[in-house]
């Protein structure tokens, strides 16, 4: 399902060499005394980091080996991902990936990796649904229908923030414009904190953002959520409809986070890491943390997660091409 075409010479040689090693040399003795690195391709403090750290701690305890979170931010996560893709497939380097890396090679011509070719999916960590949210003082609409009607009456008048060029929020804005036949004014920020700050201040009128980030502001009346861009309503705000219920079928903007290994990592290592992550995610303390973030994760096999990632690569790559986004 993950095609191996256009492999680099180095990766092909590594894979060929690994294939001739006995199984006991390729995973059954893992881990030894070496530290395991989980590369998080963002600075500390973001959602990717927040989902990685508590799980890494529990996996470390489970397998009896230290796991270090290695924050390698820059270029939309592609710097850290490229480093992970070049790492030896020995079970001591893993990547904590997110939705944006599934289509990164489409918008970053020099990304240095092909996500579906260079990584082995292991396990999801969390999934969060984005939502269309407005500042009611800046834009007094109460539904997606009213939002669209306002945009049609005054094309380009609604300032909609994204958390950065080429991000899923940027693509969500483009999707909404195309699907609704409207013109919005896209205002890109460098991260979610800056976008949320200006939304609260009324410098922009709307954005797409996870409900887990918004709950307190919505409860105080500072922000209003119009719809959830996912398959189902959110537990934290069950009264908010989905985008499909609002008239936009299959309008899904789900941010997922998961653990991946460099291609050619031995199956026994992948299986043991998968089992340890699944065990961690089943703990009540982790479930409570995820609920606070409006995050979901369900038990699934490595094969199920691989199929999910394959679909996401296809869907988001097509969306990115349609948006014609190119990053340096």
Keywords, please?
328 residues, alpha/beta, D-Maltodextrin-Binding Protein, domain 2, 2 domains, ten-stranded mixed β-sheet, 19% strand, globular, disordered N terminus
List the helices and strands and how they pair.
Blueprint: H1 9-19, E1 36-40, H2 47-63, E2 67-71, H3 78-86, E3 93-98, H4 99-107, H5 115-118, E4 119-134, H6 144-153, E5 159-162, H7 168-180, E6 185-188, H8 192-201, E7 206-210, H9 211-220, E8 224-228, E9 254-262, H10 267-281, H11 284-292, E10 295-296, H12 302-323
Parallel strand pairs: 1-2, 1-3, 5-6, 5-7
Antiparallel strand pairs: 3-9, 4-7, 4-8, 4-9, 4-10
Helix pairs in contact: 2-10, 4-12
Structural notes for this entry:
- The protein is of the alpha/beta class and 328 residues long.
- The protein folds into 2 domains: 9-128 and 255-323, D-Maltodextrin-Binding Protein, domain 2, CATH 3.40.190.150; 129-228, Periplasmic binding protein-like II (D-Maltodextrin-Binding Protein, domain 2, 3-Layer(aba) Sandwich), CATH 3.40.190.10.
- 42% of the residues lie in helices and 19% in strands.
- The protein contains 12 helices and 10 strands.
- It has helices at 9-19, 47-63, 78-86, 99-107, 115-118, 144-153, 168-180, 192-201, 211-220, 267-281, 284-292, 302-323; strands at residues 36-40, 67-71, 93-98, 119-134, 159-162, 185-188, 206-210, 224-228, 254-262, 295-296.
- Strands 1, 2, 3, 4, 5, 6, 7, 8, 9 and 10 form a 10-stranded mixed β-sheet that branches.
- Helix 7 links the parallel strand 5 and strand 6 (185-188).
- Helix 2 (47-63) crosses helix 10.
- It is globular, with a radius of gyration of 20 Å.
- The two termini are 29 Å apart.
